[in-house]
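Predict the structure of DUF4142 domain-containing protein.
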Amino acid sequence: MNTLFLKRAGLCMAMGLASMQVMAASSDDFVEAATEAGIAEVVTGNLALEKSKDAEIKTFAQQMVTDHTQANQKLGDIARKLDISVPDEAALTDKVKKMILEWRDESFDKSYVNNQVDAHEKAVELFKKEAASSDKPELKAFASETLPTLEKHLEHAKQLQAKHGK
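Done. Here is the predicted structure for DUF4142 domain-containing protein.
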């Protein structure tokens, strides 16, 4: 196996955390999947801020870090109020970092934007499902309020993919 393949596999696995449980069956599953997705967005966004040389991608990455940090905090507050366990942020951050191998700088932007499209498509699906069918009014409201931001992220990621990806 070549090194580039392993590096890309690491990126895919890291971004896969953002969609590991798209078909969340319960509120607990939604909290876990959404938390994992949010943390993966923050970690990969910070990595993009460090590694990307493209100003537009860095602006997008900063927006991902800001928006997903805020959403993670809000979701954590709601989950604690509902006595739903929240995955350990430090452990998930370490898990994402361990999966991300050093990427070649020339392929980083392409890999990042392609995976942002995939991750946000899955996040939109997850949040739509929770907004439509949650048995917890607080989580239903959170998913409904957060969904438009995720949809904007997806559209922006698709624009970046058209320029830098595929």
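Residues 105-133 form the longest helix (29 residues).
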